[in-house]
Design brief:
about 375 residues, alpha+beta, three-stranded antiparallel β-sheet, about 15% strand, binds arginine
C-alpha cells in the first residue's frame, strides 16, 4: 500500500488560511510547500475541473493535506492537536469491491498497529455525475450486533437495524448469541445494491474489560473494540465530495465508558456495575450512578492500558485541546468547535474546555453526513 508521506508544516502560516474556501485552501497548501505550481495556477485548474463537472484533480499531497485540514476543522473532535499526524492512504483508483475490502482490511491493520493506534484515513473515489461510488451501511468498521428479542435488545441497540439487514442478506450470527458479536460489513456497490462481506476473522482487535480494584468486574464480560473507524461521514475538499473516506483515531475513554456502555439507550451497564460494587441503588441522591460511572471509566482506561492499546483520558484530551487552540491562535486561524461535543460527558466542569466559549464555523475542507 502506498502511504502518503509525512508533510512538512510551517509553525506559522500567514494566508488567512482557515481553508473555508478554495483560494484559502490552495494558499495554505502553497505556504506549506505542497504545490507543484503556484496557488493561483492550482486554483484556476481546480475551478476548470469543477466547472466541467469533474472532481478536482488533486495531487496525493493536496489530498492528504485536505484530509488533515478537514480533521483540524472538525468542530466535534477534541483530539485535533494531532491533526498533522493523520496518515492518508490514497485509494481513489480502487473501484472493485474486492479491492475496497482489501483496502479496508489494510486500514484496520495500519490504524490498530498492534495497539500503537495511528490516526488514519483511506480515501476512495470521488463522486462524479452519474456515479455514486461505493459506500457502506455500517457506521464504523467495527460494531456489535443488536438482536431484538421480545421487546428487549441483546447487544448494541444502536445496531438493531443493521443487524436485521445483515441477517436478511444472509449473515448467520454465531451459534450462541452474545452481547458482543462483531457485525459483518455491508458495502453498497456502484449499482446501489448492498453486498454482505464477512468480517475477516481476527481482524478487529478487542479489549476485555477488567477493573484494577474490583476483580468481580471482569465477570460482567464487558469488552470493546480497540479502534473506532468511522465510515458514515463523507469528506469534502476543493469542491469535491468523497462519499467513502473511512477515518480513525484512538479512543477517549469516555466514548466507550460513558456513552457506549453507560447510556441508557445503549448497553446501560451502570446498574450491573453498581451491583458488582455493592452499591445501594434505591436512592438517587447517594450518587450510585456517578460512582459506577467513575469505576466503569477506570476499567476502560485500565484495560486498554494493560493491553498496550493507546487510549486517552478526558483530562489529558482536554488539556491537549487547549494546546490545539493556542497553536491555532498563533497560526492566525480561528478554531471551530461545538461545546456540546467537546466537553467530556464526565466531570465536564473540572476540564478546562468547560470554560471555553465555542462556535461552529462550518469550515472546509470538512467531514459531513451525506443525505
Ligand atoms: N464515539 C464513537 C464511538 O464510541 C467514535 C467516534 C470517533 N472517536 C475517536 N476517538 N476517533 O465509537
Amino acid at each position: 500500500m502506498a502511504l502518503l508521506p509525512d508533510l512538512p508544516f510551517p509553525e506559522r502560516s500567514d494566508a488567512g488560511c482557515h481553508g473555508s474556501d478554495l483560494a484559502a485552501f490552495f494558499r495554505e497548501a502553497e505556504t506549506a510547500g505542497l504545490l507543484a505550481s503556484t496557488a493561483a495556477v492550482r486554483l484556476e485548474e481546480c475551478r476548470r475541473d469543477l466547472a466541467a463537472g469533474r472532481p478536482a484533480a488533486l495531487s496525493e499531497a493536496e489530498l492528504a493535506f485536505g484530509a488533515r485540514v478537514a480533521w483540524r476543522n472538525q468542530a466535534r473532535c477534541i483530539g485535533r492537536l494531532h491533526w498533522r499526524s493523520l496518515q492518508v492512504s490514497d485509494r481513489r483508483d480502487c473501484t472493485d469491491l474486492p479491492d475496497v475490502v482489501a483496502a479496508l482490511c489494510e486500514h484496520v491493520a495500519c490504524s490498530t498497529a498492534d495497539g500503537a493506534v495511528r490516526p488514519f484515513m483511506t480515501v476512495f473515489a470521488p463522486a462524479e455525475p452519474g456515479r455514486r461510488g461505493i459506500t457502506m451501511r455500517n457506521r464504523q468498521l467495527a460494531g456489535y450486533a443488536g438482536y431484538l428479542r421480545n421487546g428487549s435488545v441483546l447487544g448494541d441497540p444502536l445496531n438493531v437495524e443493521l443487524t436485521a439487514e445483515a441477517i436478511a442478506l444472509g449473515w448467520t450470527p454465531p451459534g450462541s448469541l452474545t452481547a458482543f458479536d462483531l457485525l459483518p460489513w455491508i458495502l453498497v456497490g456502484e449499482d446501489g445494491r448492498p453486498v454482505l462481506v464477512p468480517l475477516p476473522p481476527g481482524l478487529i482487535r478487542e479489549i476485555p474489560l477488567s477493573h484494577p480494584a474490583w476483580p468481580a468486574f471482569a465477570d460482567l464480560g464487558l469488552r470493546w473494540y480497540a479502534v473506532p473507524v468511522v465510515t458514515d461521514l463523507a469528506f469534502r475538499v476543493a469542491g469535491t465530495v468523497f462519499p467513502f473516506a473511512p477515518f480513525s483515531g484512538w479512543y477517549m475513554g469516555t466514548e466507550i465508558a460513558c456513552r457506549n456502555l453507560g447510556d441508557e439507550n445503549r448497553y446501560n451497564v451502570l446498574p450491573a456495575v453498581a451491583r458488582v460494587m455493592g452499591l445501594d441503588t434505591v436512592s438517587k441522591s447517594v450518587l450510585w450512578k456517578d460512582r459506577a460511572l467513575i469505576e466503569l471509566n477506570t476499567a476502560v482506561l485500565h484495560s486498554f492500558g494493560a493491553a498496550g492499546c493507546r487510549i486517552v483520558d478526558h483530562h489529558t484530551a482536554s488539556a491537549e485541546f487547549m494546546r490545539f487552540c493556542g497553536a491555532e491562535k498563533k497560526a492566525g486561524r480561528p478554531v471551530s468547535a461545538r461545546w456540546d461535543w467537546i466537553v467530556p460527558p464526565l466531570s465536564g466542569s473540572v476540564t478546562p474546555v468547560f470554560h471555553l466559549p465555542m462556535t461552529d464555523l462550518g469550515l472546509r475542507p470538512e467531514f459531513f453526513r451525506p443525505e
